[in-house]
Structures are given as C-alpha cells and as structure tokens.
Design goal:
The protein is of the alpha/beta class and 308 residues long. It folds into two domains: 3-142, NAD(P)-binding Rossmann-like Domain (Rossmann fold), CATH 3.40.50.720; 145-303, Lactate dehydrogenase/glycoside hydrolase, family 4, C-terminal (L-2-Hydroxyisocaproate Dehydrogenase, Chain A, domain 2), CATH 3.90.110.10. It has ten helices and 14 strands. Strand 5 (114-117), helix 5 (122-133) and strand 6 (140-142) form a beta-alpha-beta unit. Helix 1 crosses helix 9. It starts with a strand and ends in a 5-residue tail after the last helix. The relative contact order is 0.14. The model has no long low-confidence stretch (mean pLDDT 95).
Amino acid sequence: MDRITVVGAGHVGATAAQRIAERELAREIVLVDIVEGLPQGKGLDLTESGPVEGFDARVAGAQSYEATAGSGIYVVTAGLARKPGMSRDDLVTKNAQIVRGIAAEIGARSPDAIVIMVTNPLDVMAYVAKEVTGFPRERVIGMAGVLDTARFRTFISMELDVSVEDVQALVLGGHGDSMVPLVSTVSVGGIPLTELLPSDRIEALVGRTRKGGGEIVGLLKTGSAYYAPSAAAVQMVESIVRDKKRVLPCAAWLEGEYGLEGLFLGVPCKLGRSGLERIFEVRLTDDEREALHASAKEVRETMRLVQL
C-alpha cells in the first residue's frame, strides 16, 4: 500500500505508526496531530530508525489532512485518554466532536479509504465515523475484540504458565465493562479451559479481562494503555493490507447478525483487502447471548449521547 494515515501522534498513534513502518505495510505513513511539531518530530525520529531496524517506509508528520489524500487506511487514535476514575462513557461527548471533524476530512480526502477506529468509546466513535463519512460498513471497523481477546489470552497463559500461542479465546460485545469473553470457546492446546481450571478461577480471569484497561490506567495514573492497543490495531491493518483474511474479533456494524442491528459491536470478522469481508455467527450459550444483548444495550445508551 502506498499510504496509511495514523490520526493522533500520542502514545497509541506513534506506536502504531512505528509498528506499521517496521512491518513495511505502506511506503509512506502519515502521522497527523494538531500539536505543532509533534507529528513531524516523531515522524522524523521513526524514519531515522529505519537503517537500524531495516525498513524503508517513511513516516511524515503533518498538522493538516492535505498530506493524507489517497490513503488506503486511516487508523484513528486521536481524542482524550482515560484518566483514573473516568469511564469510557465520560469521554463520549468530547471525543465525538473530535472524531466528527476527523471523519469529515477522511471522507473528503480519501473517499475509498478503510477506517480503523481506536478512539474510545470506540463502538460509538466508529458509529460517528460511519455516519459522517457515509462509508459502507465494510470500510469502518473498530479495534476492540482483538485487544480484549489478547488480554484474556494473556491472563489465561499467566494463570496456567503456558505459552500464549497455545491459548485460543474469543471476546465479543462492547469494548468496556460489558464485554463478553466466550468461555465456551476457550482452549489451551486444544484442551477446553473448563477442564484445566475451576469455575471460580475462570470467572476471576473474565473479571480481570473486563477491567483490563482500567487496571493499566490505575497503574500508570497519568495515561492509558498503548502497547497492546497499537499492536491490536496493526494486526487489523496487516490483515487488510496483505489480504490475509484473518478472523479477528472487531467492532462491526450489525445488520441482523446475532439478532442485533443498527450499532457497532464486537463480533468475529474476516478482514481482507476490501475491509470487512464477512461476519461469523458462532453458537452462543443462553447466558452468553443474554450478556451480548446486554452489552449491546449499553452501547445503544452511549450512542444516544451523540448528536450528529
């Protein structure tokens, strides 16, 4: 791909730009931020690491969106970060204003682009981006379940002292406290998790996963997670750029899947060159389906706070 734009040169955005450059997913990465000199300085610093890391991608910083024209993918990370005691819902009004402006620029500069939303609360911010750009659902996708699933897999691997590579899991639903880790799908080296851990330990891991972002915010005190979120977003970018057709849990606009429609929610998605290529519907237990619909209800309540 010739050009990928990352909107927001903070920790998540800059780290995402670094990962995209190091994997050479585009010839040029444009890093956009409203702070004068910040994206230019980080972009130059990243580009200068190319001879050491062995990549030829260039990272250019900009304050305006003119330099982003023709980008194939936009990774949107700009917005206010969570602070201790702040819920994702607290962010909605201000970040909706920010994302509305970004989406208008994307639609005008790159009408064929794919948008990967990272800004929180991302289920609702993806909705804002879709409405403002007018893009079809295949080209607006939220980064949620990839991160949440990575956290779930991490905690399981730590509990059992096994490689994360052998832990398979799936987390659906909204990106927040109402997310739905599907315990029924979890396996370790092909062995169901329920055969390896008692129910109380599994429930503790589910609870920690739901609070995973808040745990990091509480530890950092002055910021939020960025290594894992940027890695999750770039895994989505790579699947699209390389047409890998990975099946990843992402926030997608539902049109009847799982008995839900008219909102973004985390579901298993196939990502390829055209963006969202398919949504897979997995069989849920009664409790899981109830939890997924409860999560959808929370997303809808947050959507009502947004005026478009």
